[in-house]
Design a protein that fits this description.
This protein is of the alpha+beta class and 139 residues long. The protein contains five helices and five strands. A hairpin with a 2-residue loop joins strand 2 and strand 3. The chain binds flavin mononucleotide.
Length: 139
């Protein structure tokens, strides 16, 4: 059973209210738990970034279902690769609305994701702190 991780970005068709986001999350978490999908979802100003991890066929099918979801469009897949071990093993779908973070935390998280997309989950997960992360991922 091959495990993969997929990272994509997309744009909401309409701005999502906190209630819209909660609904989306609640449903996703339930389904992901059953399907043994882990990962996280970030949202800010109408833009999504999501990481999905799990069994290859399950992740591919889910990504296709998400791609067809009319709540967003313009999905761009940044990463699809084999995974030896989950980076988000405890999260059926971690979530952050980046609007609620202060500026410093926002920068750190954006860099974590950029690093993740460039270097893969093992490297990004292994990076210990925001400052070291920004140093190693500033290239
Ligand atoms: C940005 C975004 C992320 C989503 N993430 C998930 C997810 O992680 N898991 C999931 O089951 N559905 C997710 N969905 C919802 C799916 O697109 C879909 O509505 C849901 O899986 C139900 O599919 P169905 O109506 O074909 O049964 C997401 C939707 C959007 C817009």
């Amino acid at each position: 059973m091959a495990m993969i991780t997929v990272v994509y970005v997309s744009s909401a068709v309409l701005l999502m209210s906190p209630t819209d986001l909660l609904d989306l999350l609640r449903n996703s978490r339930e389904r992901n738990h059953v399907a043994q999908i882990t990962g996280m979802l970030l949202y800010r100003d109408g833009n999504f970034m999501q990481v999905l991890e799990g069994e290859e066929r399950v992740v591919d099918a889910l990504q296709e279902r998400i791609r067809r979801d009319p709540r967003h469009r313009g999905m761009i897949c940044l990463l699809r690769q084999r995974l030896a071990e989950r980076a988000f093993g405890d999260w059926s779908m971690g979530f952050r609305n980046l609007h609620e973070l202060d500026e410093r935390e926002r920068v750190v998280r954006a860099r974590t994701l950029a690093c993740f997309a460039r270097q893969g989950p093992e490297t990004a997960a292994a990076l210990p702190s925001g400052s070291k992360l920004s140093a190693s991922c500033s290239r």
